[in-house]
Amino acid sequence: MLSTLLLTGCSINYPVTNKVTKSIQAVQAPVNLSKLTSAPKPTIVYDRSGLVYMKIGQDPISLRYEQIPKSLQDALVATEDHNFWTESSIDYRSILRSIYVDILTGSASQGASTIAEQLAKIVYLNDNKTLSYKLREIWLGVQIERHFTKQEILTMYLNKVFLGENTVGVYQAAMRYFGIDLVRDPNGLTLDEAAILAGLPQAPTAYDPLIHPQAARTRRNEVLQNMVKYGYITQQQASAAQRQPLGVKYHSIPSQSWDTHPLFTNVLFDYATKNGVTPQQLLNGGLKIYTTIDPKVQSAVHSVFWTGKYDSDFPGPVEGAAVFLDPKTGGLLGVAGSRQQGYVPFGLDRIYSNSSPGSSIKPIMEYAPAIQSGNWGPTSILDNQPQDFGDGYIPQNWEGPSGPSKVTLQYGLEWSQNIASVWLLKEIGLQTGVDFALKDGIPLTQQDRQQLGIAIGGMQYGVNPLEMAQAYEAFDNHGVQIKAHLINKVVNQDGQTIYQFHPSSTVVMTPATATTMTRLMQDVVDYGTGTAALVPGWGVAGKTGTVQYSAGLNSSVPNWIRDAWFDGYTPNLVGSIHIGYDTSSPQHHMTMYPLDPSANAAKIFGDIVGLAEQGSVAEKFAQGPLPASQGTASAAYNTSSQPAQSNFENPAGSSTNNTVVNNTGAVTSGLRGNTTTPGNLGDNTILGTGNSTTNSGGRGTGVSTSSVPEHNGP
């Protein structure tokens, strides 16, 4: 028994403790070796109704030992386990040392795994660093060594190892990266190609040649040097292979259902692996995954967001993400992490990519906190005159100096007035806005929390679409935010639940505040900057946002836009739409004219909702009592001669209207514009000067772009 040997060895070489004894004995359990040779089983994914939505990993192809290129075998052994062929993979002295240190430290940090142990990890274990996990891995590796030959172990490993880009095994990987069918052409891989594949097991995403070519090239060259070191090739052969270009290209694998659902499955993969499910389990482990996805919503997202319908509206490879969730449960109903047709880079999921939210942050940072305080209402008067808010920070309104000098709170949000918004945040107190945003799940750095530019989206690292959808969820759910999630439960092929979602909620605001904000943001969609999001018959509320490069002010091409947003909701859905560029530079931009990009984001939102709700009975938002008009000044609501154009009309019939003050200081009414005003007016936050920075965050560039929310529009 291994336990006897280990305990005897420990007693000779190391002091034996109860902890050592119990830890070694705890990992020994019967091993079902048939799992190593059984055919892989597809994973079944269920939708929110419990119906089968898709299967992952059908028709896997396993290679025989003689079909695996010798160069690939050599490259893998030289890199992962150079003693594999020459001696037993079980080095008891090293095991004794690592076990003793790991037990005493409570971690599993000692030593690298052998190929047999890695095979055990793939087939039997979840990926974690606990001590019992490492001990179990060693025990299983011993059993594998006892019952299988070296050739069998290596063949099983190379057929089961995850190699990135949704591939399991070298057959799929050779097809994915090089378009080579190893069944038909076992000698089809060149030496440099074999080295690329052999370098992937340690970190398949980090060394993915399609996403990180430089890292993949460095890793390939390391593998080739390992082959020289252990006598598999000469230095001359290695140098020749190192001079070769990567030569990789994305190829579809016909037997993979994954390739037919890329928008959903990339997000599913990200979510599952972040919650302890291994890639091998997901792709061919026979799992049952119970998700929150709504096929109708997901189909609408795919039809609108990914089919290129709006490509003519954007110059160049504009990217983006779409997230829709259920406001009552937090379950994700439809998702898209890319706008590309064709290849979607594995792991590049833009629902987690950060950027400045522009004006779409305004309801969260200042308007809802103001309403929540009880000191402000829709008719409260805000100062909208150009002014220095300190340290030379002078924000601008999108329409320039011709706009009104004083506006109601309602008008300020409806027409996305930057100066009034910054002024409001200053009046309620920066800390008040920060506290509210943090409670609503907006990630704020210490730098963000110290400057007023955050009122219109000036953030150090920004926010991602999933966070924005979750933040707007509180407006749609009576002030309560429920944690967003995609998977409710994962059950393995043995019937054991290996992941279970546990819901959690946060009370962000009172129901009255949520109701008032909903009616304010209905005005944005019905009459203001977001009219492109209108869905006939449905109640829609939301806010637009754009982010502009500072170069746009001084360039011959004005109003260069980097990012555009629409965040909104209906009684049944909450959604966030972001469109923008992966590369943060003025060379990658959208323009304000002839159509503001935020109007396109709003249009995408409206089209998705329209398709998703097709055939459903249209619903409006429930109406509640309005807060009293409060603040330092109040508009006179006695102008029945002007068209109302507002969701704040009193049901008793008394006429109410939005009121602003023009540049001369005279109070006037009805300056909202008419109901046919298109949602195509500039809503942009300028990046490039001032006291705030914006970073592309999850886009992978890591480049901090000095930003200033100065000029922002809808």
UniProtKB/TrEMBL annotation:
Q: List the record's Gene Ontology CC terms alphabetically.
A: outer membrane-bounded periplasmic space
The UniProt entry, under Gene3D superfamilies, shows: Biosynthetic peptidoglycan transglycosylase-like, DD-peptidase/beta-lactamase superfamily
* Record-linked SUPFAM superfamilies: beta-lactamase/transpeptidase-like, Lysozyme-like
Q: Taking every annotated instance into account, which residue ranges of this chain make up the domain Glycosyl transferase family?
A: 62-227
* Biological process according to GO: cell wall organization; peptidoglycan biosynthetic process; proteolysis; regulation of cell shape
Domain Penicillin-binding protein transpeptidase: residue ranges: 320-572
| Pfam families the record matches | Transgly (PF00912), Transpeptidase (PF00905)
Q: Which InterPro entries match?
A: Beta-lactam/transpept-like, Glyco_trans_51, Glycosyltr_51/Transpeptidase, Lysozyme-like_dom_sf, PBP_transglycosylase, PCN-bd_Tpept
Q: Where is the composition biased (Low complexity)?
A: 652-670, 688-708
GO terms assigned for molecular function: penicillin binding; peptidoglycan glycosyltransferase activity; serine-type D-Ala-D-Ala carboxypeptidase activity
The catalysed reaction is: Preferential cleavage: (Ac)2-L-Lys-D-Ala-|-D-Ala. Also transpeptidation of peptidyl-alanyl moieties that are N-acyl substituents of D-alanine; [GlcNAc-(1->4)-Mur2Ac(oyl-L-Ala-gamma-D-Glu-L-Lys-D-Ala-D-Ala)](n)-di-trans,octa-cis-undecaprenyl diphosphate + beta-D-GlcNAc-(1->4)-Mur2Ac(oyl-L-Ala-gamma-D-Glu-L-Lys-D-Ala-D-Ala)-di-trans,octa-cis-undecaprenyl diphosphate = [GlcNAc-(1->4)-Mur2Ac(oyl-L-Ala-gamma-D-Glu-L-Lys-D-Ala-D-Ala)](n+1)-di-trans,octa-cis-undecaprenyl diphosphate + di-trans,octa-cis-undecaprenyl diphosphate + H(+)
Entry keyword set: Carboxypeptidase, Cell membrane, Cell shape, Cell wall biogenesis/degradation, Glycosyltransferase, Hydrolase, Membrane, Multifunctional enzyme, Peptidoglycan synthesis, Protease, Transferase, Transmembrane, Transmembrane helix
Bias class Polar residues marks the residues at 629-649, 671-687
Region of interest (Disordered), residue spans = 624-714
Q: Which family does the UniProt entry place this protein in?
A: In the C-terminal section; belongs to the transpeptidase family. In the N-terminal section; belongs to the glycosyltransferase 51 family.
Name it. Answer: Transglycosylase domain-containing protein
